[in-house]
């Protein structure tokens, strides 16, 4: 009899922390990914069935590895019998410490394999590493459960044939975690918090400063979550947010993580983005924002990861440092169909005092918005300028 | 129970709607906020009554696409800015009667617009084909 897990949420937390570790161990030992994932799910069900009554075992992870391993062997044996193949892998857990550190990245890089589309990689990561149920993931992405189940099952098949001995590119993993973070909150699962949890797990086992950079970036944005929306769900732009609602503890933690990452002297795009977010979070009032430093970091970011979107965001900083006309000249060189280009142009024209053009551009931007919160916000901006002009 | 689709249009070619329809960016920001809050409120009312099924909003610009033969990329056309009755979004409700569906549509149509006055916009109500009933004789 081991330590008690008193309530269901605590048990759920424990199981979700252990899920990727157990799966990583099984796959590292040569198990087929899809079969191992099924075995882990069965072991989790057993844990749910027995632990609340019998008490949590002293070595919960060892228990799960053993039970899942046994289920996997049963499965492999029956498959092997069918196919008259030799049992090639020995799946009984070995004594002693596991190679858990590498497992975390190995498992994540498998789920974020370049052969998968972003949507598939996200779903597989949340299921296999995050330990969420198919129903929870389906709800978060507003699709029927059967659809999500099929997406995950196809993703598992895609990666099952791939070798699983060397971790893939960390960049692909970070990109998927970043996408999960940006999905935000639609169902019962807060995907932003889920992404932070997964990135934290990875950061605990990786010395790559970009992993720390991404974690810092997520925390710096998440710290503003309470100020970002009105009670009815409307968008509140950064400059107008009630900064007393920002989570200063989270910001302080993120700044520590970022400074530690920067001191390792291997700069990357996530560290640069986090540095920009940190400078915003550092300003007690919007007018105190250090735009000169922000612009320097955007120059760095544009060098590290050049893209029209970064150039657009940099133009906003240029608008603050060198004035709206300088920023509008940069916009002239950017693609017309770049998302949010019209909204930035509208803002810059407003700053330049050209209110009629700004109102028209806000209306155009509203028509091109990709979500209703943004659309409504931009419509209100157009309405605000039109109402002022009519007065 | 029967399901109905309540369609909301960006603009309508119906005479009454045309007269009353002032583009949203010509309202005051508070009127815009009130209109959006009202839409949310109607959805919440339908949820509380156990009648809400789904609600989605559509972007104004779309494209027409069609098959152009084996191995050829799809043909695209549009967007057509002048398209009449452009769909802005929908609600799906599951209600006891057609009468109740009309009542819900009228409630949606009473949404406040410029200066807080009801916009009286036309809501298109379309019944879904249902399942074959178990007892048919």
TrEMBL record, chain B:
Pfam families: YCII. Residues 4-109 form the YCII-related domain. Belongs to the YciI family. This is YciI family protein.
């Amino acid at each position: 009899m081991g330590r008690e897990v008193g309530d269901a949420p605590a048990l759920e937390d424990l199981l979700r922390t252990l899920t990727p570790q157990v799966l990583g161990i099984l796959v590292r030992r040569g198990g087929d990914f899809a079969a191992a994932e099924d075995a882990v799910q069965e072991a989790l069900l057993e844990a749910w069935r027995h632990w609340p009554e019998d008490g949590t075992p002293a070595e919960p992870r060892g228990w799960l590895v053993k039970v899942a391993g046994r289920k996997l062997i049963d499965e492999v044996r029956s498959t092997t019998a069918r196919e008259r193949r030799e049992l090639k892998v020995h799946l009984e857990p070995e004594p002693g410490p596991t190679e858990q550190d590498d497992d975390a990245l190995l498992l994540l890089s498998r789920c974020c394999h370049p052969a998968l589309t972003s949507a598939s990689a996200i779903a597989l990561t949340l299921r296999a590493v995050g330990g969420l149920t198919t129903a929870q993931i389906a709800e978060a992405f507003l699709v029927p459960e059967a659809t999500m189940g099929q997406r995950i099952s196809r993703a598992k098949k895609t990666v099952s044939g791939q070798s699983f001995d060397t971790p893939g590119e960390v960049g692909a993993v970070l990109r998927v975690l970043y996408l999960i973070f940006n999905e935000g909150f639609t169902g019962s699962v807060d995907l932003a918090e889920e992404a932070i949890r997964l990135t934290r797990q990875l950061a605990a086992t990786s010395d790559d400063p970009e992993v720390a950079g991404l974690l810092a970036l997520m925390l710096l944005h998440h710290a503003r979550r309470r100020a970002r929306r009105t009670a009815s769900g409307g968008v509140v732009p950064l400059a107008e947010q009630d900064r007393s609602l920002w989570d200063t503890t989270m910001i302080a933690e993120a700044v520590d993580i970022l400074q530690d990452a920067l001191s390792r002297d291997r700069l990357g795009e996530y560290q640069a983005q986090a540095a920009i977010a940190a400078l915003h979070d550092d300003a007690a009032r919007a007018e105190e924002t250090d735009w000169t430093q922000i612009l320097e970091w955007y120059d760095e970011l544009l060098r590290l990861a050049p893209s029209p979107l970064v150039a657009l965001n940099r133009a906003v900083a240029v608008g603050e440092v060198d004035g709206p006309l300088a920023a509008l000249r940069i916009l002239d060189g950017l693609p017309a169909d770049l998302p949010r280009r019209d909204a930035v142009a509208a803002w810059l024209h407003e700053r330049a005092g050209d209110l009629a053009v700004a109102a028209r551009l806000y209306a155009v931007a509203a028509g091109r918005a990709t979500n209703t919160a943004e659309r409504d916000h931009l419509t209100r901006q157009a309405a605000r300028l039109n109402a002022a002009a009519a007065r | 129970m029967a399901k109905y689709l309540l369609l909301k249009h960006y603009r309508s070619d119906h005479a009454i709607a045309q007269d009353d329809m002032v583009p949203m960016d010509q309202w005051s920001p508070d009127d815009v906020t009130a209109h959006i809050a009202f839409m949310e409120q109607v959805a919440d009312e339908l949820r509380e009554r156990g009648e809400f099924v789904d609600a989605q909003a559509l972007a104004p610009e779309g494209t027409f696409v069609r098959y152009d033969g084996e191995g050829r990329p799809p043909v695209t056309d549009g967007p057509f800015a002048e398209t009449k009755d452009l769909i802005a979004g929908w609600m799906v409700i599951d209600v006891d009667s057609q009468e109740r569906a009309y009542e819900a549509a009228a409630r949606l149509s009473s949404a406040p617009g410029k200066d807080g006055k009801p916009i009286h916009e036309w809501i298109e109500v379309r019944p879904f084909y249902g399942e074959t009933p178990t007892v048919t004789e």
